[in-house]
């Protein structure tokens, strides 16, 4: 009898990743996950609570999410058959990587390309599905390095290119001309434009128009960053032909009835609430950014609901000082080099931001 060895069964990519480091615990100010502050009105919360109750608890959800897809399509100026709904965008990322993993040549691994630093779920989801992941550093201003991107695309011929714009953790939208150049260079790939933070960017900067300009673009959006992270609702908008294929790897009941109903209500009737979240967060972002700068830290321009901050010395002691006072922000110093002094701070309520400023001033 051979000894049982788990490692002989595991997808090799698992050895190269760690489970997503979601933070837990209780904090005075939780500013580490880019959630929106709780700003919905009591009336909106009551309407949401009502929407959560299904007509029939015993029935499966609508596997086609008909109402929700129609609401998303109407808002995006797309057709419902160009919309696929997931248990938020994390699931859609995984579905795309599952459907689009044919190697370019027999015996090769499929490849995914993204930038660094960026949202870690692209790499994680790709690695656990056997992809090789190519990571191209952003330039000194945290924008796309078009030359390096085009060279990497030509050399690696990735199945998928993932670009979060606005990018997490760096905060800004990518320049639209650079984005177009990269999409054009990746004409053999699907280019995923992740708009998780688009609600906090200047209006009119939605990248949905790229869908009509290029046949190989998919746009991801989510309700998670505008105040509804608990629902787990996100979607992709892309070519109907691609949506039909990705739909085959989607579990039929991936989005629960309460989530479908609440999300449909939000999109159809609670636009004013989303607008208020957007306005409050943007105003607080500008105030917090100016105040942190006055403390002597460097803050990058942000089109999102968080700030990309450079500390004067190593970030680790600052992170520890904040944690000791119940404030959780995200640190990047473990990656070293140009991230050694970087923190990502979610914009919170005015009171949370004031507390952060207070503690930060003492910590420096
Ligand atoms: C937070 C985030 C998401 C989120 O995902 P959901 O699964 O929709 O909650 C997607 N993309 C980026 C870049 C993010 O930062």
Question: Helix and strand layout, with pairings?
Answer:
Layout: E1 29-30, H1 42-52, H2 66-76, E2 83-86, H3 88-99, E3 111-116, H4 121-127, E4 132-137, H5 146-156, E5 160-164, H6 176-185, E6 190-194, H7 209-213, E7 217-222, E8 234-237, H8 240-246, H9 257-269, H10 271-294, E9 298-299, E10 306-310, H11 315-324, E11 327-328, E12 330-331, E13 342-346, H12 350-363
Helix pairs in contact: 1-9, 2-9, 3-4, 5-6, 9-10, 10-12, 11-12
Pyridoxal-5'-phosphate binds next to helix 3.
Give structural notes.
The chain is of the alpha/beta class. The chain has a seven-stranded mixed beta sheet, sandwiched between helices. The longest helix has 24 residues. The radius of gyration is 21 Å and the shape is globular. The protein starts with 28 loop residues before the first strand and ends with a helix. Pyridoxal-5'-phosphate binds next to helix 3.
């Amino acid at each position: 009898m051979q000894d049982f060895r788990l490692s002989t069964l595991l997808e090799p990519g698992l050895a190269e990743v760690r489970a997503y480091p979601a933070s837990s615990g209780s904090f005075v100010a939780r500013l580490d996950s880019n959630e929106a502050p709780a700003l919905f009105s009591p009336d909106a919360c009551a309407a949401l609570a009502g929407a959560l109750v299904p007509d029939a608890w015993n029935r499966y959800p609508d596997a086609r999410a008909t109402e929700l897809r129609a609401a998303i399509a109407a808002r995006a100026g797309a057709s419902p058959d160009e919309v696929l709904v997931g248990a938020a965008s994390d699931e859609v990322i995984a579905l795309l990587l599952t459907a689009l993993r044919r190697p370019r040549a027999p015996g090769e691994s499929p490849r995914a390309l993204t930038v660094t630093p960026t949202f870690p779920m692209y790499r994680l989801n790709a690695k656990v599905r056997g992809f090789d992941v190519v990571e191209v550093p952003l330039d000194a201003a945290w924008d796309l390095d078009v030359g390096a991107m085009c060279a990497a695309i030509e050399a690696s011929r990735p199945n998928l290119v993932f670009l979060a714009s606005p990018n997490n953790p760096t905060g800004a939208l990518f320049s639209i001309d650079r984005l177009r150049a990269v999409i054009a260079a990746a004409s053999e790939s699907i280019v995923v434009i992740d708009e998780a933070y688009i609600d906090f960017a200047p209006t009119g900067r939605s990248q949905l128009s790229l869908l009509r300009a290029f046949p190989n673009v998919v746009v991801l959006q989510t309700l998670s960053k505008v105040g509804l992270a608990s629902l787990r609702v996100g979607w992709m908008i892309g070519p109907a032909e691609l949506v039909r294929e990705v739909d085959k790897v989607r579990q039929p009941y991936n989005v629960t009835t309460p989530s479908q109903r609440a999300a449909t209500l939000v999109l159809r009737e609670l636009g004013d609430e989303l607008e208020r979240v957007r306005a409050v967060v943007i105003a607080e972002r500008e105030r917090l950014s100016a105040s942190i700068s006055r403390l002597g830290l460097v803050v990058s321009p942000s089109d999102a609901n968080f700030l990309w901050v450079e500390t004067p010395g190593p970030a680790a002691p600052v992170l520890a000082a904040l944690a000791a006072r119940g404030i959780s922000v995200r640190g990047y110093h473990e990656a070293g080099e140009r991230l050694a002094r970087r923190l990502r701070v979610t914009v919170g309520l005015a009171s949370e931001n004031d507390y952060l400023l207070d503690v930060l001033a003492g910590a420096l």
